[in-house]
Amino acid sequence: MLIIDELVTSYPDWRVSFSARLAPGQITALIGPSGAGKSTLLGMIAGFVPVESGALTFCGEDLLPLGPPARPVTTLFQDHNLFLHLPVFDNIAIGLHPGLRLHPAQRRQVTEAARRVGLGEMLTRLPEQLSGGQQQRVGLARALVRGKPLLLLDEPFSALDPALRREMLAEVAGLAREQNITVLMVSHNPEDAELIADQLLFVDEGRIALQGLPSLLRDSDHPGLRRYLGLSRGA
């Protein structure tokens, strides 16, 4: 269980405070208007954004004293953060060992992760030889091999065409089920939530305004959510 309890950070003219619970193996979609605080929440969980107060625990472990490398978290951003001088294989393998010293089983793990995201024939290519969508898939493959129990996705598939985005979302869902990974996924596409999410968090003005099933997208009368979806009250 990931427990987010009144987790607070603030800026000179803005303050956010989040509370939520995510069950192990659960996929949670985090939606809301731009600037509402979605990426800030992911940064607080990953340890990249300072927390002023509140509590953050995962499977009973207090995460706040831990630096980003020590947290049981993998974060996949819109910016895939590839090493431009390394081929696809090494960009994936660095998720297993920063010095790229892999034993045979780990090398097979890298090859399988590349195959799962459709890059099995591109292991020797450099990032500059890949499309933007292929580069994002390298980032997903790296996340697959890391095997951390908490996966944070910050719009990583935004550059993919709709069919491939749905395919990658299905891969994330399969990973979560197979390895009991807890996934928190930021998306500006409500369809993503309906495709794979077990629950939905709607963030509005620096707080979680709604938490529930993805059917909230159709059933809720919350004015902030309806504005975000572009629906009038009577629609």
UniProtKB/TrEMBL annotation:
InterPro entries: AAA+_ATPase, ABC_SmlMolc_Importer, ABC_transporter-like_ATP-bd, ABC_transporter-like_CS, P-loop_NTPase, Thiamine_ABC_ThiQ. Keywords: ATP-binding, Cell inner membrane, Cell membrane, Membrane, Nucleotide-binding, Translocase, Transport. SUPFAM superfamilies: P-loop containing nucleoside triphosphate hydrolases. One of its GO terms (biological process) is thiamine transmembrane transport. It holds the Pfam family ABC_tran. GO terms for cellular component: membrane. Gene3D superfamilies: P-loop containing nucleotide triphosphate hydrolases. Residues 2-230 form the ABC transporter domain. One of its GO terms (molecular function) is ATP binding. NCBIfam families: thiQ (TIGR01277). This is Thiamine ABC transporter ATP-binding protein. It comes from Aeromonas molluscorum 848.
